[in-house]
């Protein structure tokens, strides 16, 4: 695409992307020209979108499968916010759950009509709304009064960081051996192996969320971890025919195409 840009267009696009952002790509292009840096940037963005689509489905599948297994293993309602004595969340998980609950309340509030929002004042301000209260404080107090907020609404706002943490060494006894190893029934797989692949997926998703390029060893690592999850999630032996593999087949086909395009572009320009 960038091969057909005029000099004024290249200058304008360079401004749109910003010098620091484009500089990342200028530094790795062989020609060190803005034209090639823009082309590499665009190939990287297309690749990132494809990776996010595949890993997003992996995250959703992991989240729902984890919740299903913990429902069965813990046998109590509300284990997320009120875990049994046998399960103690670390400070990181406690914070993540509280943050997700706040986000869930904010999401509920954003969908309310103005009349519904005003109706919350009776709960948020039993002695009346203070005069001169700032809009942000008013909204926060109203949101805090929203009740109930279901576990499902909170779970929807928990990130990949939370779910990959459940496979950490901290929860080897309380979660892995008790429930989560059922998600990876192949007995040759260890918790540490799975945690390593989930970490790779998390790190790349985090980089892409900040619009940072993924290439070289990072690209190979994320492709390996995607393949690992597809072949081993819910399967007693590695298979290309797992339910997860079939679920993400269209997105993975797109990813394969974008990987080929990106690698060809990268090899040509760097």
UniProtKB/TrEMBL annotation:
Lineage of origin? Bacteria, Pseudomonadati, Pseudomonadota, Alphaproteobacteria, Hyphomicrobiales
One Pfam family for this entry, by name?
Answer: Abi_2
Protein known as: Abi-like protein
What InterPro entries is this protein classified in? Answer: Abi_system_AbiD/AbiF-like
Source species: Brucella oryzae
Q: Would you say which domain of life the source belongs to?
A: Bacteria
């Amino acid at each position: 695409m960038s091969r057909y840009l005029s000099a004024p267009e290249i200058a304008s696009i360079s401004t749109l992307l910003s010098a620091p952002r484009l500089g990342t790509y200028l530094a790795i292009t062989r020609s060190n020209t803005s034209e090639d840096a823009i082309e590499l940037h665009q190939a990287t963005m297309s690749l990132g979108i494809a990776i996010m689509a595949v890993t997003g489905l992996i995250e959703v599948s992991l989240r729902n499968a984890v919740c299903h297994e913990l429902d069965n293993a813990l046998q109590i309602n509300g284990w997320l916010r009120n875990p049994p004595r046998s399960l103690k969340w670390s400070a990181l998980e406690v914070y993540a759950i509280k943050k997700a609950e706040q986000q869930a309340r904010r999401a509920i509030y954003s969908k309310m009509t103005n009349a519904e929002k005003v109706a919350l004042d009776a709960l948020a301000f039993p002695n009346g709304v203070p005069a001169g209260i700032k809009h942000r404080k008013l909204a926060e107090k109203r949101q805090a009064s929203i009740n109930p907020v279901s576990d499902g609404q909170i779970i929807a706002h928990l990130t990949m960081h939370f779910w990959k943490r459940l496979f950490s060494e901290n929860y080897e006894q309380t979660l892995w051996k008790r429930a989560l190893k059922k998600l990876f029934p192949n007995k040759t797989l260890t918790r540490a192996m799975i945690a390593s692949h989930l970490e790779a997926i998390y790190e790349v998703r985090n980089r892409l969320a900040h619009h940072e390029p993924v290439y070289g060893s990072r690209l190979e690592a994320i492709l390996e971890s995607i393949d690992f999850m597809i072949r081993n999630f819910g399967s007693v032996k590695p298979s290309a025919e797992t339910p997860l593999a079939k679920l993400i087949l269209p997105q993975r086909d797109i990813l394969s195409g974008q990987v080929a395009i990106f690698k060809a572009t990268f090899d040509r320009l760097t």
